[in-house]
Amino acid sequence: MRGQNYSLWSLLKHGFKNHQTWEPAWERVALKPSYDVVIVGGGGHGLATAYYLAKNHPEVGKIAVLEKGYLGGGNTARNTTIVRSNYLWDESAAIYEHSLKLWEGLTEDLNFNVMFSQRGVFNLGHTLQDMRDIERRVNANALQGIDAHVLNAQEVKEKIPQLDCSRSRRFPVLGASWQPRAGIAHHDAVARGFARAASRLGVDLIEGCEVTGMDIQGGKIRGLQTNLGAVRTDRVGCVAAGHSSVLATMAGLRMPLESHPLQAFVSESMQRVIDTVIMSNAVHGYLSQSDKGELVIGAGIDSYVGYGQRGSPHVIEHTAAAIIELFPQFSRVRMNRQWGGIVDVTPDACPIISKTAVQGLFFNCGWGTGGFKATPGSGHVFADMLAKGEPNQLAKAFAVDRFLTGHLIDEHGAAGVAH
Fold first, then answer.
1. What is the 3-state secondary structure of the chain?
2. Taken in order 155, 123, 93, 340, is the CA torsion positive or negative?
3. How many domains does the chain have?
4. What is the tens place of the pLDDT at every residue in 351-369?
5. Longest C-alpha distance within the chain, in Å?
6. Which of 6, 51, 217, 300 gives a 20 to 30 Å CA spacing to 340?
C-alpha cells in the first residue's frame, strides 16, 4: 500500500484510530494567487500531465491542477478501462503505442500498483469486409512495429471457448484481430497513482475548484477566474474531456468538438469465465471481466449531444442484446449497475493536442471514446508541449489547425465501438 509494507497489526491500529493517522495519498493545499503553469482538469490526463511536467521539466516552476469535482471523478471514473494501441494510421498508432509502452512500466514508475493486466484484446470480424479491414489494420500494425495477429474462426474459438462461433448465428464469427500486449487497468488506481506522484513532486492539487472565466489581455492568457478566487498565470493547459468546448468558449475559441453521453454497465459478480477483452463493431458491444468477477460491458455513444451522465434504456437494451448474441449463456446474468460519461468527439475520431490563437493557452481534448488507454502517453506529450510551447513529434499531427488544412486522420474504423 502506497509503496510500503503494512502488517496486520498496523492496519488494525490505523483502523481503531479511524485512519486519521494514515499518511494521506496527496497533500491537500489551498489555492495560491499565482502559478507558473495551471492545468485545468484533474482526471487521468490532467494528473498525468502534471506528473510528467514536474518530473521531466522542473524548470517550469510551480504547477497547479484545478478540478471542479474530485480528482479522477470524471471520465476516468466512468469508463471500461481498456488499453490497446492497434490503430490504423501511423500518427494515432504511434501515440497509442507510446502510451502502451508507458503503461507497461507505469506501476514501477509511480510506485503504485495501477493493476495493468495485459490479457489481450480481440476485435471480431463477422463479414468478409470486416476481415478485409482487420487484415489491413494488422498489416499496418506490423509495419508500425505493433504486435497484432489475424486469427480465423477456429483460432478464435480455441482462445475464447465461451464465444459462440457457430455458423448459424445471425452474426457468425469469421475471425478476429488480436493484440496480446493490450489489456485493462484499474481507473481509480491510475488516478490516485498519478495524483500521489505529482503531489510528491510539489504539484498543488486543488479539488472543488471550478474555472468560471479566463483573463486574456493582448492575445495572451493572464489568469483564470474560479469559484475559489482569481489565479494569475501565463500558461494554461486545458484537459477537461467532455467540457473542453465550454472552456474554449471562455477564451473566445470554437473547437470542432461534440460532447456525447457514453454508457457502460456491469453485471453481478460470478466465477471467472472471460480472461481477455472481446470487441465487436458489428453487434456494437464489448466486454471484459473485472477482478471482482463482474462482466464489464460497453456500448456506443448516444446519438444526441449533451452533458448527461445517465443511461438511456434503449442503448442498454441494444448492448445487452449484442452481448447475448456473442455469449448466449449470459442471457440470465443480472445487470448490477450502469453509468454514463461525457466524451468529446472530433470529426476524425482523433484528439486535439494543440496550442491555440491565445498565447500561453493549450488544449488536450477530443479523445472521444479512447481517452483512458492514452492516459500516460497523452500526459507525457502534453507536458512536453506546456514546457516548450511547441508540440513534439508525436503530437504534431494533432494540432487543431488540421481541420482547416484538411490533414485529417480518420480513425473511425479502428476507434471501433466506444473504447
1. CCCCCCCHHHHHHHHHCCCCCCCCCCCECCCCCECCEEEECCCHHHHHHHHHHHHHCHHHCCEEEEECCCCCCCHHHCCCCEECCCCCCHHHHHHHHHHHHHHHCHHHHHCCCCCCECCCEEEEECCHHHHHHHHHHHHHHHHHCCCCEEEEHHHHHHHCCCCCCCCCCCCCCCEEEEECCCEECCHHHHHHHHHHHHHHCCCEEEECCCEEEEEEECCEEEEEEECCEEEECCCEEECCHHHHHHHHHHCCCCCCCEEEEEEEEEECCCCCCCCCEEEECCCCEEEEECCCCCEEEEEEECCCCCCCCCCCHHHHHHHHHHHHHHCHHHCCCCEEEEEEEEEEECCCCCCEEEECCCECEEEEECEHHHCHHHHHHHHHHHHHHHHHCCCCCCCHHHCCCHHHHCCCCCCHHHHCCCC
2. negative
3. 2
4. 999 999 999 999 999 999 8
5. 67
6. 51
Q: How many residues can be counted in the chain?
A: 419
Q: How many CB atoms lie within 10 A of CB 68?
A: 20
C-alpha cell at 52: 510528467
CATH number at residue 264: 3.30.9.10
Q: Cα–Cα distance between 75 and 239 in angstroms, integer?
A: 11
Q: Is residue 2 situated within a structural domain?
A: no
Residues 202 and 331 in one domain: no
pLDDT tens string 206-265: 999 999 999 999 999 999 999 999 999 999 999 999 899 999 999 999 999 999 988 899
User: Rounded distance, CA 13 to CA 363, Å?
Assistant: 46
Q: How far apart are CA 226 and CA 209, in angstroms?
A: 6
Q: Specify whether 326 is located in the same domain as 265.
A: yes
pLDDT tens digits, 49-86: 999 999 999 999 999 999 999 999 988 988 899 999 99
Residue holding cell 445487470? 335
CA 202, CA 357: separation in Å to the nearest integer? 30
d(C-alpha 408, C-alpha 419), whole Å: 20
Question: CB within 8 A of 21, min separation 6: which ones?
Answer: 13, 14
